[in-house]
Structure formats: C-alpha cells, structure tokens
Amino acid sequence: MKVEDFVDVLSCDFYTGVPDSQLKALCNYLMNTYGIDKNHHIIAANEGNCTALAAGYHLSTGKIPVVYMQNSGEGNIINPVASLLNDKVYAIPCIFVIGWRGEPGIHDEPQHIYQGQITCDLLDLMDIENFVIDKETSVDELKNQMKKYSSILDEGKNVAFVIGKNALTYDEKVEYKNDNEMIREEIIRHIVDVSGEDPIVSTTGKASRELFEIREANGQSHKYDFLTVGSMGHSSSIALGVAINKPDERIWCIDGDGAVLMHMGSMGVVANVNPDNFIHIVINNGAHETVGGMPTVASNMNLVEIAKACGYSYAVTIDNFDDLDSELNKVKDLNKLCFIEVKCSIGARDDLGRPTTTAIENKENFMKYLSK
C-alpha cells in the first residue's frame, strides 16, 4: 500500500513518534511533507513522551492524533495509555501506528523475537483494538477498518495499526546528512585502541554492530564488550551497574544521541552515584540513523552543559580525531566520572554486518571476563 493512501485514509493532520525502519515509508513521507513542524509533526524523545504530547494535542484541538513507533516502544506507552488515555480515566482517543519487528514467521534480530510475539497481545491487554496491515492489505480494507475505528475513537478509546514488513511503500527519497566529518565506525575504532582490555557497554543499533566488527578485524575477543542489542536508552544504566560492582575496572559506555534522549534521566542517576571508573561517550550525529536517519533534537542541545549540570566531574565535546585521541587518553587516567560528546556524521558502510554470536553467548563471555 502506498503510504499516501494510508495517510489519506487516516485523515489526521498531527503525527508524533519515534522513528522505526519498518515505518520508513511513513517517516520519509512525513519529513518530505512536513519536516519537523510543531503543528503537524514532532519526533519525540521516547514513545511515552509522544503519547503524552498526543494527549495535549487532543485536549487543545478535539482532533485525533497519530503516534507512530516500533513495537519495542509499547513498554514505554503502557503507563500513559493506562493512566492517561484510557476511557476509564480521561478517555483521550489516539491512533497508534506500530512497526512490527519480530513478526512471527519472518527472520529478525534476537532483540525483536519475543517483542514480536507479544506485540498484539500487549495491545489487547491495554484494550487497544488493533489491525495488522501487510503487503496484501488493500485500501478498501483499510477504509472499512477505519469506519469501525471511528466509533471506537468516538468513545474515547485507542486503536492501532500494526504494520508488517514492506506493507507501506513510498517512492520519494529523503537524504539525511549533517556537516560533521567524523565517521562513527572510526570513532569506535579509536575508543577500542585506547580502552585496551577495559570492559565496554555499547548502545543498540549500528554502534554495537560496528564494535563487533572492529573486534573481528583486530582479531580480538568479544569478551570485553556487552552489546546492548535492544533496550534503547538503557546502556548507561547497565554500565553504571557494572561500574558500581567492579570498582577496580574502568568501564566505558558507548552511547548514541537518540538513546541518551530517550531516557535522559539516567544521566542524573549516574552523576549522583558518581563512579570514578565510568567513562560515558555519546556519539552524536543528531539522527536516529539505525532506523533510517530521521533527526533527533540533540544537534541543537548542549549535552556537555547538561552533563555538567547533572554532576559529571569532567565533560567535553570534540569534533576531530586529534582531539578525540587526546581526550580518550586523558580520561583513561583521570579517575573521575567523565563525559565525552563526539560530533559525528550520518552514515555507515553498506556491508556492515551483525554479530555472529548470540545474545546469550555475549552475556556469558562478558560475565566470565568480569569475574576474572
């Protein structure tokens, strides 16, 4: 189904969400049509954030908002759906458009398998009527479903369209880029060179994939790294848990701007605990690159000042490899809670692979290494 037909049938003029590769057609359509426009389209920090934003839109306009997201974000919407939107509370109607990663019968990555199995079950538990759109769904079927949904929305309830792989198409292209020169894979390569045998916790997406391939190319063991293949926004908290319990080890966290934004409160917790063996590196390309490249708001934020305000002992931003090497070697010996923001370009090589070890193997090897 062409995304233009999908949007036309929904007949809504406000969209907010968190980008997803399964919804790339919708995301690119919204960027081409609206860009980032406070009246029509806002990319939120996390899925709960956009659900609350959608509630505010309805309260002020009386219209129906659309929230889009990957199914991994269902956990983030449970609280606002159950305690804010629900018809037993404020009865605020909303249309959810959910990319179905881990759809049963379709090969996907390990972090998506269980989430895919329970995607529709979670919606049922939240009393959100849901309808699956696949490659065979016709516009007429969608129109008939929207007619059914109209009465449900009128009752102040929520509905959802679960979007299968390649179910929506869009012919126009969108190029996402910035003016930064540093390439993320090279940034990670420099971190690996300096960190030596120190444990690294890396964020979900291409950063962990690149870290894995760098170890392969170097002929190094993967035991040093915990690859957070899911749980976007939680890598720094995982790393904090490790740092607290391994005070004699220097713990590095390789994070991304989208991930930091998703659960930024964790920075305050990290700083309050103030582990002197923790180095937090945020590779900031101002984009949700792993799922298509749509922008985050991080390119317009001063993450270093935020880190300092949270209580990080040392914080700096850099945009070139000479300064990167200098700062990496400096923080390695500081014995303070450190924060490095690295300005990064958008893009990765086309032949970037995925980890060839399982998530369980990664966990067990990492734990064995920490135990020694």
From TrEMBL:
PROSITE patterns reported for this sequence: TPP_ENZYMES
Principal EC category: lyase
InterPro entries: Phosphono-pyrv_decarboxylase (IPR017684), THDP-binding (IPR029061), Thiamin_PyroP_enz_TPP-bd_dom (IPR012001), TPP-bd_CS (IPR000399), TPP_dependent_decarboxylase (IPR051818), TPP_enzyme_TPP-bd (IPR011766)
Subunit structure: Heterododecamer composed of 6 subunits alpha and 6 subunits beta.
Tagged with keyword Amino-acid biosynthesis: no
A single GO molecular function term of this UniProt record: thiamine pyrophosphate binding
TM annotation in the entry: none
Keyword Transferase: no
Lineage, uppermost ranks: Archaea, Methanobacteriati, Methanobacteriota, Methanomada group, Methanobacteria
Residue ranges of domain Thiamine pyrophosphate enzyme TPP-binding in the record: 205-342
Catalysed transformations (reactions): 3-sulfopyruvate + H(+) = sulfoacetaldehyde + CO2
Enzyme Commission no: 4.1.1.79
Primary role: Involved in the biosynthesis of the coenzyme M (2-mercaptoethanesulfonic acid). Catalyzes the decarboxylation of sulfopyruvate to sulfoacetaldehyde.
SUPFAM superfamilies: Thiamin diphosphate-binding fold (THDP-binding) (SSF52518)
Thiamine pyrophosphate enzyme N-terminal TPP-binding domain mapped to chain residues: 13-118
Protein name, UniProt field: sulfopyruvate decarboxylase
